[in-house]
Amino acid sequence: MSVFYQKILMFTHFVWNKLRQPAIGMMTTYLLLLAEVTSAAESLSDQLQVHGFISQAVLHTTENQWLGDSAHTSFAFTEIGVNSSLRLTPRLLFSGQILSRRAGELSNGTPTIDFALADFNLVSSTHNQVGIRAGRFKNPLGLYNETRDVPFTRSGIFLPQVIYFDKVRNLALSSDGLLFYNDFYLENGNISFSLGGGWPLVDTNVENAYLFRNFSGQLQADNPGWLASFWYSNQSERFKLGLSAMTVDMQFNPNVNALPFTTPGAGHVDLLYLVASVQYNTEQWSFTAEYSREPIEWRQFGQLFPDYKANAEGYYLQTTYRFHPQWEWLLRYEEGFANRADRHGNDLEQISHGFIKKEMGFSKIFSTGLRWNINSQWMLRAEYQLHNGCFILSPRENPDFSQLERNWSLFTLQIGFRF
Amino acid sequence: MLIDSIVLSQVIDSNRWQWWRHIIVFLMSCSCLHLVQAQTIIINPSVHLTCIDQNTARLLFTMRIQQWPNQEHLPVRVFVLADDNPVHREFTKTVLEIFPYQLRHVWDRQLFSGTGQVPITLTSEQEMIMSIAKTPGAIGYVSILPKNSNVYTLRLE
Asked: Which residue among A84, A116, A324, B123 has the highest number of C-beta atoms inside a 10 angstrom radius?
């Protein structure tokens, strides 16, 4: 079709040039160029992919607030994502995703750029693959971080909160920078390395979680963070093993007008985030375990906020059972601690003179859920969680710590659609 | 007379055994035929390959390699049937030896992290043959390949 148009345009071009009307001649030259671009775009349309998802949940908690006013039933958990990718050449991929996430007080649904990257493939063969990703990329942390906001890729309605904190999701979510990757395809399995650096996205949730409230001033990354990951999987993808890590250096910049007795000084929060992962899959069962460590250091905040070190820890055991091609059952137990040296939170309560309750130092969660894949596009889920502790709750949603209840449970229903 | 009848019965027995053996051999060949014929990898004639190993087939169908191994400038185009299609399920399990849900996990991870693309899903084997015949660099699969199709088959080593 476009060849036909090109011929017509060429003919018009010829005729008009003969008639010596240069302005219109130029216009047809432009149209000719446009036709060429369009025909190139036609072949590009094979390389362009657009996909997306949408989900809505309804939540109810017996005590405490989790994603909205959950104690009185909350609908404030909506995820919408649209992504597009263009493989310009086999060696060059552009991709991006817009995400709108409404999650109670934690996120109001303003669309954000989830990722936007260019993937330059330098070496590609049946033995290995080497390349660089530039732009905003999802951090390859643990089994789930890269796709944590896509309901279809999660093991439950919620990921294990002791590792994939939703209260500080932005910190580990993505980086603006460069990521180098090298995958080896061996006879005994695939090995994948990645190493990168970039700026994390620090937001108010991060400040609330690491400084326990939103002070007058801003917590910002003062250095780009480092990322590294190592993954092994056997050829049939049955067995997976991974180690991933990242560093984050943040600085608090108090407002000039902030009162010195109520606002901490220009201190630093530095942390390392480490995750070890293992997964075994059979046709019907998947067994997953992950362990994370997060050494954190608070320094130079002044007298109001003395120097402090903690080593947060989280782990979970999870099994999913696909008892029918359309149905999946989830069972998970997880434990997480704000400081592994203070698993009952006693020190936390003592250091903060009772401001931080000890329940905020740990979370022990039992989860069970059902997933029904209605068809290839629709999914319905139900999940029940029994909580002991409040470590995973955000101070932003539960500002009055005295109201926190140690034992609570959560019931959630979620519907999801993808295209 | 008695000896005769015993000999006769042995002859009948051995004949019966022969008969059973034929049936067993026939059934076995049928099932072999079924295994061989059930899933055939098909490619567009632009791809200059006659056979690949299982690992390469997995790399192609998990969208991990974008160019054909012997043809640097020919992009790979992967076509599949829906996850719940019996031909797809059989193909992933017996030829690739990956469970369909795992293949979906691999694709989803690439799709939703922006690190790769996903195959094009078609609705029928007929559409599969037509799409592969007209798309340079295309690869897919069918349960049984009709004669005179404008596609080549790719043997698995």
From this structure: A116
- pLDDT tens per residue, range A16-38: 454 444 444 444 454 555 555 55
- A153 and A142 in contact (C-beta within 8 Å)? no
Task: Say yes or no: B105 and B73 in one domain.
Answer: yes
Domain co-membership, B70 together with B136: yes
Contact A235 B54 (CB under 8 A): yes
Q: Is the Cβ–Cβ distance between A383 and A368 less than 8 Å?
A: yes
- The CA distance from B145 to the nearest CA of chain A, in Å, is 25
Residues B124 and B107 in one domain: yes
Indicate the residue of A90, A147, A238 with minimum beta-carbon distance to B75. A90
Residue B7 shares a structural domain with residue B72:
no
* Same-domain pairing of B99 and B25: no
Q: pLDDT, tens digit, for every residue of B131-151?
A: 999 999 999 999 988 888 899
Looking at the structure, tell me whether residues B20 and B88 fall in a common domain: no
- The answer to whether residues B66 and B100 belong to one domain is yes
Nearest to A150 among B65, B67, B112 (CB): B112
Contact A387/A343 with Cβ under 8 angstroms? no
Task: Give the residue numbers spanning the domain of B145.
Answer: 39-156
- How distant is the Cα of A90 from the closest Cα of chain B, in angstroms? 5
Q: Are A78 and A101 in contact (CB under 8 A)?
A: yes
